[in-house]
Structures are given as C-alpha cells and as structure tokens.
Amino acid sequence: MSDAADVRDDWALLVQFDGDAVRAQWPLNRAVTRIGRWPDNDIVVNDRWTSRYHAEIRRAGVGYFVHDLDSKNGTLVNGQRLAAAHRLADGDQISVAPLHVLTFVDYAATAPLPGQKPAALELDAETRAVRVWGRPLDPPLSQIQYDFLAALAQDPGRVCDRDSLIRAVWPDEDPSGVSDDAINALVHRLRSRLRELAPDHEFIVTLRGFGFRLDLPHE
Predict the structure, then answer these.
(1) Which of 36, 67, 81, 196 has its CA 20 to 30 A from that of 158?
(2) Which of 73-87, 105-119, 131-145: highest mean pLDDT?
(3) Within a 10 A sphere around the Cβ of 210, how many other Cβ atoms?
(4) CB contact at 8 A, 216 and 157
(5) Over pLDDT 90: what percentage of the chain?
(6) Bigger pLDDT: 119 or 63?
(7) pLDDT digits (tens, 9 = 90+) for 123-142
(8) pLDDT tens-digit profile of 133-183?
C-alpha cells in the first residue's frame, strides 16, 4: 500500500493493522479519498484483486461514506459486499482485496490507537462524557457546562462571541437577559472541573470584549 500521511486529531482515519500494531494509517482529510491499484489513488493497493479505481470514502458533514466504484471484485464492509453507499461507524472494516483490510477509526472514538497518545480533550454528546488526555471527568459535567464546552470545541482556537455562546447554552433566552455574572460563574466552574485532570493547562481563554476560545495544548 501507499505510504501514510501525517495525521491530526480532528480527522478520521483508515488504519491497517498488523496484529495489534498499526502498520499504516491514512487521514481522511479530503472531501473524497480514493482507493485503488493505480498510482494516482490516494491509497494505493498494489494487488491484482483490486481494481484500478476500486472504492472511495466521501466526507459529508460529520459523517463518512464508503462507495464502491463498480469494481470487478467488489468492496466488503465487515464481510458484506456493498450494494450501496455505507455510512462508516468506528471500527468498520473495509476490504478491497483478501489480504488488505482497512479499519475506519472515527475522530471522536474514545480509544486511542496503539502507540498513539489520547487526545487532549474528547467530548461525547450522547453521554456528556468528557475525557482529558484519555481520563474521564467524573462526575460528568452539567448540561449547561457541557453545552458551553461543546460550543467552543466546534472550532478550537477560534473566538466565540458572547451571544453565540448564550444561544448554544440557553437557546430559549434573549442574550440581553443573560448577565455577565452568570457567564463568568459558568466559565469559572468549568475551568475548575477541567483542572481536575489538567492542572497545568487552561483550556478556556477569556478575550475581554470579544468572548472566549478553546485552547488545546500542542502535546
């Protein structure tokens, strides 16, 4: 297979395992990632079973879909031949040749790959679970604490203004009716909770007169 590219925490991956070890991994950092035998594919599988242009992964919003490109031998997902596009879930196994299996690893997956450090901050909207360097915050955040953090986490490093954050946390309230004291108290408590697992890093940065931003550590 072709060499893997560098990865980033907010990209889903296709991973080739060798036992429990990662043999290669490819970030799904494009709208379309194509797999096939010819060298102009994004992921090259040099196997006569594989068609020149065999399959592709398409990103749609926060989801990823695998499509077979009318390949001669078909594309399998979890052992089943694709008859239509399939939305990928964490752990799905894609096969374009008998000896070439690629595992889809969602960027929101809670378990890090073998040999890979956990992400600095991970959020699960369904359970309100928050992990810092792979360790869960226990007890979980309150709903408004989680909503505030999730709003910032949509675009780490970007400043979120006061009104946008109020709409995310208190969607039924008029922003003018939410006091600065209420926001500051929420931020203070949220910072305290995050310090329980990361005492040396301040995740939430205040930019007076502008809003707040989520600051993720580089390591």
Answers:
(1) 196
(2) 73-87
(3) 11
(4) yes
(5) 49
(6) 63
(7) 887 788 888 887 888 888 99
(8) 878 888 889 999 999 999 999 888 889 999 999 999 998 888 888 888 999
**Residue 21, token pair as written in the block:** 């070890």
Distance from C-alpha of 144 to C-alpha of 124, rounded to nearest angstrom: 14
Global pTM reads: 0.49
13-105 carries CATH number 2.60.200.20: yes
For residue 145, give both structure tokens. Answer: 């604490």
* Residue whose C-alpha is closest to residue 35's, from 17, 16, 21: 16
Residue 48 CA to residue 182 CA, distance in Å, equals 64
